[in-house]
C-alpha cells in the first residue's frame, strides 16, 4: 500500500508537471500528450477542414494528415505527393495545397466527392506534356468533385490546363486561372469527348488567357453553366462548342483578343450579357437555336454563320436569336475637322445583314455640342449627320441596338 501511494503521488506530480508545461507551451505551439516526449506542432499546419494539407519545405513536398497531424507522404516530386493524398481518400475528402510548387506529371481526380483546393495565390507550374489537372475517368461516373483557388501555369509542350473527362456531373470549378499552354491545339480547359455525357457542372470566376485556345466543350457536354468566364489573348479561339454540346449557359462572360471569340456548333446555347472585344470574328455559329441575350461587341465582326448545317429546312431551325435590351455593337471614331457627317460601315461580312435595315437603331454621342440624325441606315452601314460641323479633335461614340 505504501509503495502504491508513492506511485500514485509520483503520477500526480507528473500530471501537474504536464499541465503546467502545456499551459506555458501553449503560446509556443508545444504540447505534451500523456507522458510522451514533447511534440512541436507548427502553427497553421493542422486544418481539420482538409483531409490532407500539401506544403513544401525546400525542395521536399509533404502531405500532412489533417486529422492526425502526421506526415503520410513526402518526396521531391510534388505531383506524386499530391496524387498519393488524393488516392488515399477512397470515400471522398479535401486536399488543400498551401504552397506554390512545380508538378511534372498530371494530377488526376478519379473518384467522386474529391475537392482539390489551393490557398489564395497558389501557383502550380506544370512542366509535363499532358493536362495539368485531369478530372474523371472515361466510362466511370464522377460526381460532386471540386477544383478551386488554383493558378495553373503551362508550357509549350502540354496539351492543356484542365481536362474534364466523361462522365463528370454536378461538380464545381471556381476561381481558376489557367495560362501559358502554347502547344498547337492546346486548350486551357477541354471538357468531354462523347457519350455518356458530362453535365450539370458549374464554373465560376474562370480566367483562361494567353493559351493557344481557351475553353472547349466537346460533344455530349450538356446543361453546364459558366458564370464570369474570362477568356483573353488566346491565339485562335476563346470558346468552342462542338456539335452535340447542348443546353449550356454562359452568363456575364468576356472574350477578347483572339481570331474567334465564340465558335459554337452546339445546340441551344444561351449567352447572357456576353462581352467581346478585339476578336476577328465575334460569334461564329453553325447550328440551331442559339441565343445571345444583351450582347456587347467591340472591334469585332458581328456575326459569321458557317455553311456546315442547313438552316432552311423546317421552321424549328433558328440559328441565332439576338434579343433586345442592350448594345449590339459599339465603337469610337475620330471625325475630321469641319465634317458635316460620318459614315460607319459594319466590319467584315454578315453583321447587320442578320438584322435587316429596319431592325436596329443607333445611339450616338459626340464630344461637341451638336444635333445628330441618322440617314441613311442600311444593312451594311449608317451615316451620322451633324447640325454643327465637327471641330478639331472631334470624336463620336456609337452603339447599335437591336429592337426586337
Radius of gyration: 29 Å
The total count of strands amounts to: 37
Average pLDDT for all residues? 79
Helix content: under 10%
Name of the CATH first level of the largest domain: Mainly Beta
Count of DSSP H/I helices: 2
Q: What is the approximate shape?
A: elongated
Distance between the termini: 99 Å
Main sheet properties:
28 strands, mixed
Number of domains as seen in the coordinates: 3
CATH topology-level name of the largest domain: Pectate Lyase C-like
What key attributes describe this structure?
404 residues, mainly beta, Pectate Lyase C-like
Question: How would you describe the overall organization of this protein?
Answer:
- Helix content is 9%, strand content 47%.
- The protein is mostly beta strands.
- A hairpin with a 2-residue loop joins strand 3 and strand 4.
- It has a 28-stranded mixed beta sheet that branches. A 3-stranded antiparallel beta sheet has the order 33-36-35, with no helix packed on it.
Write a short abstract of this structure.
With 404 residues, the protein is mostly beta strands.
